[in-house]
Amino acid sequence: MLNTPLIPKDERLSAVIDGEVSEKVVAETIEDLMHDPIGRARFERYGMIGQVMRAEMSDFVVPDLSSRIMARIEAENTMRTAVPDAIVDDSKPAGKLVRLFGRGQPGRWQLPIGVALVASVLMVAFVLLPVMKQVSDVPASGIQAASTPALTADSQQVVQVSAASDQSVSMPGWAFGGYSSDQPARARIDFYLDPYFMTHFEQTAHGSQVGSVMPGVRLASFQTR
Amino acid sequence: MAQELTDKVLVQRAQAGEQAAFELLVRKYQHKILRLISRFVRDPDDALDLTQETFIKAYRALDTFRGDSAFYTWLYRIAINTAKNQLSSNGRYGYIWSLNSSPGFESEEPMPEPEALRDHATPENAVLTDELEAVIRKAIAALPEDLRTALTLRELEGLSYEEIAQVMGCPIGTVRSRIFRAREAVDKRLKPLIDNK
């Protein structure tokens, strides 16, 4: 019964709740309710009558529950205005940010811990990458172990690299990025270098006056044969 | 469904930014959602928090609701997921039976209600519920027969006004009037009780 233009005004709310009026009447009635808090409360009580009859009520009733919910929404809107981009729909993964503001939510420390972990990984990568590149990118030929482990401080600061052109270049240890590597060459390097690292480390630690200099930086020199 | 027309209009107005429209949706469904969530959590404060959380999530996501399903179906899913997330994050599966295997998990069908989960009402709120139910049932029992029949056919049997008119042998306008007057009579007893709490 959706075409009932002559519904007495008093009966409209009841008929709207039952969905027994036209869309136009629904719109008009709801428009009235927008400015009528007493009518909205009546709307709730009318609905409550049916819910009690159908045993749809919870075991406990909180009379001001809707007020609490709307107050929270109002507060959230205020916060959203203040921090427009931080508050998002937390039904999506990115919305976990919202939990930082929630009372007793388990996600309270997720973001700081995550940031700390990522920062730690990046820092470790930043420190180790040059050393790893130094080992893996060394050319296969021209490796010559330093004959004197306890080198002078000056000569230990650089690694000498030479290309096929017989020109020697001195550069810091982490500046090897342009050299290609291959697996057999890596194996040969490891074969020569690993024992030397060990030996050198021991001598640096116990017999050298320059223990603060990284062993890996001052180990090898490369010369054209 | 004709009844969904009201929700549709309310949702549209809420999406347009009218909080009063969303308030009406809250008023309409708060008790059903609270009852739904109360099946899963033992603590009434948790149930209240989750009920509020459900409506706040719905409010935030309201723009994404396209009306492909009924509003209550959408709200129901949010409530279930909210309860499920909360329980799993707290490691409190002991308080529920498996939500995933529960009948009605993905539907609106009512779920079985274990008695163990029904002892969570605070004394004051439980008393209020009892009083509400008592007042409403007493008021309905006191209604004239024609009003009570019309209201019962509508609320319990879910008949349309047209069907009720056929059953009762009267015009649709009379059905509408009887149901309205029945509600008004009950509301006269209900309103003071709620206002005093």
Textual characterization of the structure:
The complex is a heterodimer of chains A (225) and B (197). Chain A has 225 residues and is mostly helical. Chain A has helices at 9-17, 23-34, 37-53, 65-82, 110-136, 153-156, 183-207; strands at 143-145, 159-162, 168-171, 220-222. In chain A, the strands form 2 sheets. A two-stranded antiparallel sheet of chain A has the order 1-4. In chain A, β2 and β3 form a beta hairpin. The longest helix of chain A has 27 residues, at 110-136. Chain A is rod-shaped. Chain A starts with 8 loop residues before the first helix and ends with a strand. The relative contact order of chain A is 0.08. With 197 residues, chain B is an all-alpha fold. Chain B folds into 2 domains: 1-94, RNA polymerase sigma factor, region 2, helix turn helix motif (Rna Polymerase Sigma Factor, Chain: A), CATH 1.10.1740.10; 118-197, Arc Repressor Mutant, subunit A. Helices cover 67% and strands 0% of the residues of chain B. In chain B, α1 packs across α2 (19-38), α3 packs across α4 (71-90) and α6 (145-155) crosses α8. Chain B is globular. Chains A and B meet through α1, α2, α3 and α4 of A and α1, α2, α3, α4 and α5 of B.
**Biggest sheet of chain A, in brief?**
2 strands, antiparallel
Low-confidence runs of at least 5 consecutive residues of chain A: 85-107, 138-181, 215-219
Low-confidence stretches of chain B: 93-120
Report the sheet with the most strands of chain B, covering strand number, pairing sense and barrel closure.
Answer: none
End-to-end Cα distance of chain A, whole Å, is 101 Å
Instruction: Give the full name of the CATH homologous superfamily of the largest domain in chain B.
Output: RNA polymerase sigma factor, region 2, helix turn helix motif
Average pLDDT taken over every residue of chain A: 65
Shape of chain A: rod-shaped
What series of H and E elements makes up the topology of chain A? HHHHHEHEEHE
What value does the Rg of chain B take, in angstroms? 19 Å
CA radius of gyration of chain A: 38 Å
Helix proportion of residues of chain A, in percent?
Answer: 40-55%
How many strands of chain A? Answer: 4
Global structural class of chain A: mainly alpha
Name of the top-level CATH class of the largest domain in chain B: Mainly Alpha
Q: How do the SSEs of chain B run, as a string of H and E?
A: HHHHHHHH
List how many beta strands of chain B DSSP finds.
Answer: 0
Known CATH architecture of the largest domain in chain B: Orthogonal Bundle
Total domain units of chain B: 2
User: Hey, which two chains have the biggest interface?
Assistant: A-B, 58 and 75 residues
